Amino acid sequence: MKIKFFGILRDFAKTESVDIELEGPVKVRELLNFLSGKLEWFSEFLKKVEEANISLIILVNDRVISDEYLLKKEDEVTLLPPAAGG
What we know:
By secondary structure, the chain is of the alpha+beta class. It has helices at residues 8-13, 28-38, 40-51; strands at 2-5, 17-19, 26-27, 57-60, 63-64, 70-71, 76-80.
């Protein structure tokens, strides 16, 4: 499964994307937990996002989905930082 990063997430990751292997279908929420366990910066970023009561924008195969969506190994996941404005 390819995970693509955009915006500040790409800066933290120091790469455009990573390829990971997960066994069987997993929910997006489970993928986020997996990434938090593997990437310390991602874990810290998610904590700050949750404290601010906002969420990541998550696309699967270029479509916005919920964190309950069931991912397959051939899916491409795009993680975008929360939008901000004023």
